[in-house]
Specification:
globular; alpha/beta; 53% helix; eight-stranded parallel β-barrel; binds SN-glycerol-3-phosphate; single chain
Length: 214
C-alpha cells in the first residue's frame, strides 16, 4: 500500500519524506490556496523535492482547456499526474490524455460507476472522496469496496487513491480493503505512527533502566 501526502505545504512534504512516509503527493486548488503563495512556484518546488507521483489539478471546465493545461503541467516532470474532475468534459479529456501517454487522476469521485467510467476512459488513478461522503452520512468506505470489486472483475489497471481521509481509521479500513493508495493529510500521517501506550511503555523502560545504573 502506498502512502501519498495530501498537501501543498512544502514543510509538511519535507517532514513526511523525512519520516519515509511519502510515496507521492496530491494537491488541489484548495490546498494550494492555503499556501498564500504563487501556486506555480509552489508546484515547481513540490516537483523539485518529490520523486514519486505528484497530482496537479486543472481548473478549466472544458475538454480543450483541460487538455492544454494538462500538457503544460505534464511538462513539469515525468512524475506529474494530472487531476481531472469527474465530469462529462473531464472524461473526454482523460480519454485524449491517456492516448497521449499523460497520466491522469480522476478526482471528485463519489459513486462506483463514476470510477468505472474513469477507468474505461484510461485513467491512471481514481480518487474517491470518502470523508466527504461520511460527512453527509453516507458510508464512504463502501464505495472503495465496490470500486475494488468492479476493477478486479474486469482487470482494470487503474489504481484507487482513497482520498478525503480524516483519521487513522480511514487508513486502517483502506488497508484492510487492499486499496492501492491512501492520500493522507499531514496531521493524520503523524497520528499513524504514535500510540499513547508506546510512549508510556518507553518511559517506563527508560525509568527502570535508570534505576539499575550505578
Ligand atoms: O485529496 C482530496 C482531498 O484533498 C479532499 O479532502 O478533506 O477537503 O474532503 P477534504
Amino acid at each position: 500500500m502506498k502512502f501519498f501526502i495530501d498537501t501543498a505545504n512544502i514543510d509538511e512534504i519535507k517532514k513526511g519524506i523525512d519520516m519515509g512516509l511519502v510515496d507521492g503527493v496530491t494537491t488541489n486548488p484548495t490546498l494550494l490556496s492555503k499556501e498564500k503563495k504563487d501556486p506555480n512556484q509552489v508546484i515547481k518546488e513540490i516537483m523539485s523535492i518529490v520523486s514519486g507521483p505528484v497530482s496537479l489539478e486543472v481548473i478549466s471546465k472544458d475538454r480543450e482547456g483541460m487538455c492544454k493545461e494538462a500538457r503544460q503541467l505534464a511538462g513539469l516532470g515525468e512524475n506529474a499526474v494530472i487531476k481531472i474532475p469527474m465530469t462529462e468534459e473531464g472524461i473526454k479529456a482523460v480519454r485524449i490524455l491517456s492516448q497521449e501517454g499523460i497520466k491522469t487522476n480522476v478526482t471528485l469521485v463519489f459513486q462506483p460507476i463514476q470510477a468505472l467510467i474513469a477507468a474505461k476512459a484510461g485513467a491512471t488513478y481514481v480518487s474517491p472522496f470518502i470523508g466527504r461522503l461520511d460527512d453527509i452520512s453516507s458510508r464512504g468506505m463502501g464505495i472503495i469496496e465496490d470500486i475494488t470489486i468492479i476493477f478486479n472483475n474486469y482487470g482494470f489497471e487503474t489504481e484507487i487513491i482513497v482520498a478525503s481521509i480524516r483519521n487513522p481509521i480511514h487508513v486502517l479500513d483502506a488497508a484492510l480493503l487492499g486499496a492501492d493508495i491512501a492520500t493522507i493529510p499531514f496531521n493524520v500521517l503523524k497520528q499513524l505512527i504514535s500510540h499513547p501506550l508506546t510512549d508510556i511503555g518507553l518511559e517506563r523502560f527508560l525509568k527502570d533502566w535508570g534505576s539499575i545504573q550505578r
